[in-house]
Design brief:
Helices cover 1% and strands 5% of the residues. With 1231 residues, the protein is mostly loops. It has a domain at 765-1112 and 1159-1178. The protein has a three-stranded antiparallel beta sheet, with no helix packed on it. The longest helix is centred in the last third of the chain and has 11 residues, at 1207-1217. It is globular.
Length: 1231
Amino acid sequence: MLVWQVLPGDEHGLGGEALQPRRALVHVVLYTVAVHTERVHSPHVQHGLGGEALQPRRALVHVVLYTVAVHTERVHSPHVQHGLGGEALQPRRALVHVVLYTVAVHTERVHSPHVQHGLGGEALQPRRALVHVVLYTVAVHTERVHSPHVQHGLGGEALQPRRALVHVVLYTVAVHTERVHSPHVQHGLGGEALQPRRALVHVVLYTVAVHTERVHSPHVQHGLGGEALQPRRALVHVVLYTVAVHTERVHSPHVQHGLGGEALQPRRALVHVVLYTVAVHTERVHSPHVQHGLGGEALQPRRALVHVVLYTVAVHTERVHSPHVQHGLGGEALQPRRALVHVVLYTVAVHTERVHSPHVQHGLGGEALQPRRALVHVVLYTVAVHTERVHSPHVQHGLGGEALQPRRALVHVVLYTVAVHTERVHSPHVQHGLGGEALQPRRALVHVVLYTVAVHTERVHSPHVQHGLGGEALQPRRALVHVVLYTVAVHTERVHSPHVQHGLGGEALQPRRALVHVVLYTVAVHTERVHSPHVQHGLGGEALQPRRALVHVVLYTVAVHTERVHSPHVQHGLGGEALQPRRALVHVVLYTVAVHTERVHSPHVQHGLGGEALQPRRALVHVVLYTVAVHTERVHSPHVQHGLGGEALQPRRALVHVVLYTVAVHTERVHSPHVQHGLGGEALQPRRALVHVVLYTVAVHTERVHSPHVQHGLGGEALQPRRALVHVVLYTVAVHTERVHSPHVQHGLGGEALQPRRALVHVVLYTVAVHTERVHSPHVQHGLGGEALQPRRALVHVVLYTVAVHTERVHSPHVQHGLGGEALQPRRALVHVVLYTVAVHTERVHSPHVQHGLGGEALQPRRALVHVVLYTVAVHTERVHSPHVQHGLGGEALQPRRALVHVVLYTVAVHTERVHSPHVQHGLGGEALQPRRALVHVVLYTVAVHTERVHSPHVQHGLGGEALQPRRALVHVVLYTVAVHTERVHSPHVQHGLGGEALQPRRALVHVVLYTVAVHTERVHSPHVQHGLGGEALQPRRALVHVVLYTVAVHTERVHSPHVQHGLGGEALQPRRALVHVVLYTVAVHTERVHSPHVQHGLGGEALQPRRALVHVVLYTVAVHTERVHSPHVQHGLGGEALQPRRALVHVVLYTVAVHTERVHSPHVQHGLGGEALQPRRALVHVVLYTVAVHTERVHSPHVQHGLGGEARRSLQRRALEAGRALVHVPLQSD
């Protein structure tokens, strides 16, 4: 166990003044220790681990073999005022990640002078409880206080009153709280906090649960996270063979609170289940405090992120007007509508919902979610959750009260599985279904797993079925059937309702959206709508009436797809108009089957498998024994005109997914009458190619070039202009869509939605990747990653038994919003990950409230999510001005910049940034990515992807053609490793790189892993390097260093020497950049800021100007740090000026990673990771088996003023060294 000794002068936590103002992450290593803080009035503890910072409140206890914990807290002490990390944490921020063989932590408040502090002293006094348990676990939480400092909690104002993350793992425990009027229980486990209401029931072998609750007690008023929970907040995380949680409210003085008291009074429910999992969510309340929830105003009324890992969990919420459920588990927030079901083995889920509150008006990502947003991710060994609403006074509430009254149904079945879905109804209540109005008319998520069951919903006009399984909600239409071992699927659809007009995520889905994720041992799903009074509803009622078909197949496989039709009913199919004419995703695996759909003008087939929907065109081909392939294509040949699936594929589409001992498929468009169809015919005509492979790797890419040779490359013209997907990993697959100018494909995979753009990436055992792209087509105008997504959209899906989802926006009145509504209109990003992983996304909104979303202003316009986990992946996009690449990997979207890096086993990280470019202006997460975007994903058994644009006739296309023309490079490697990075240039487009201005000039990510490789890109003015690996894109600066077995160190620096001018990455590093990664099977990444006009942004641009850092680590850890000094020598230190003022990352331990950001009062950082958003606050910490620790700190000392590398170094010397505590050395010692 590591022990921190508070030395004289260290009164300020670990790191001294250096961390004084802001941000600290403490992650531990092999056979590690637990960290916690607590506040007490004792002069001794006054600081706990980190000084005053913990003074008032905060406690994290993480223990045992291979674990780690991170947290931050604020106090009123001028010393700690910043807690561990300085002002940044001052009022709020805490991430706790834990790993293998861990411990549980909890706090409780009581009126007893003894317990008054419980484990952590006063801090827990009134309320807070985290129970984290052993083997493979973790917990995270934050809380708010009335201190003007904390006012923001995790992400600024957003947490002001509230924030809490609880992650748990194998061999865990269950925690619960309940409120009663008994003076005894009045506090239950956690004291007053539970007093009025909150209950989490977690059950079964090795599990745990965490939750927060709101009460009217001035003490608890905040529950877990302060006021934030005041009215409502709940986190339920569960583990191996777990249990389900639910809440309900009744007027009975006994139950009135149900299990947890008033807290559940009106409504909120989270059900998380399974081995190695976690869930997080936020909710909105009418309290001026919470007004922001998780991430500031953005959540004010609503915000929710659910990330999960190995053996995951499920979450859902629902709203109702019933005074009973009115709040469900989490209060008003769920009042009318919201449901997330996340499931099992290696999975994750994210969701947001909208409300009519001017506060939430944006939900997760601003306006986009304003009315609606939902993500459902699922995995092996799962659970089922469901809700239903009926008019029966009995059921009227079902599981969750009125909320389900009219409509909501989830049917999850059997051995380790789960399914989630939402649907729309004409009831003013549900009008929103899952995510508020968004689902108003329709929404459904179905995720399933091991030997599972099928789920479906249907709405009928029959008084009997009128509700079917879930009541009216299903009345007219929707059905998802997912089956079998290790699988899942997700999708959304649009409707003409002004409410849903956005579908899942607002207008974005307005007309169309579909997500299908699947995994090993899967099932088939399908829906169909017909005009027959019988089928009129088929499996799901009218909803399917005209069209929808999903065919998923057997052992180790699954497929999902959507399509659009002209029927007013389906007109949107799964995702609205977008699918109208066409959409199909087919993913398959070992011992699989083939699926296909087709639409024809024949009255017979007119519907094919799914009715009209497939009428004109669609085809999925999946294969067997250890492999599968899927593709669709459209051609003008009367023969192929339909290809495998008829007209549907007529113009173009191809999906190739493969598995162990597998195959690869691709499509391409060419002007040759021969290839014109290639594998998929014309459909690919203009461009598209997916190559997915299995057994220890695969690579996919597409490119467009003007060369008659390459003109088609792998996929032909289809890629002609732009698009590349590289998905790799043991037993994996990938799916994507593309847009073309053909009136047929105009929609590509998903109908009009893709017309301009649409992409689904579904993967299996150990990995997946997703991406989108933009083009100058008014439809795609955006693609994935800024203009590309016209304004923005990005999905990162990862790993073992996993899936990915994403949406994109276009100028089409249909897609206009993609997945996430207006939010994506300009911007939207989803990151989904599995096996020991998670995904996050960002989005921007116009709401003054959310203006910041999760992370403050930064998301205002921009948002960033960092998810990491064993066996993971990452995705990204970029934009360029080249008419060729103008789309690069994803069309214009990449035009100036965008990159997708997907990785596997043992971690990943993702983030976004903002720029002032009108194109990217939003990128992944809105304005934030405007100019810049970066994803770093890494994992064992990985793959590399990259794109680059150069002016060289040779490279001009590189892998992906012109698209990469000016700049972009991703180098991903295989067997045990990968690395990804992005960088900025002086282009008005990129001007910001990752994190806004911060990357303006430069960006760097260093990821490493066992048996790995190194990747880097750089931009230089040399005609030779001018493009380096990625061309101009790196022109000014960029460097990625990836390492291998038994480690390596990498660094970059910028100098004025013509030689180094580029260093490892060229000019990009020109002024400064350094990465030091060390130790057996490890890696580290970091960024730093400098005052140099070059680095001015460091890693993430201005954001880092003062600070930004991503640290990803792996097997048996590594330590990384940066520091700035005024010495001409060190001026850049390890990383140069970039670290000038402050930044330090310490990552440690076996198979792990951590990420975080922090805010400062510097006009530079004002945005941190994601711009203003971090200005005051922002932090992401993701960790994985055998974890890692990361931290940064800022101080007012001219020395440290710059993080670890000045006062910070002096602080660390004083702290780590003098205290005999060096995070970097600890893991080494551990090793």
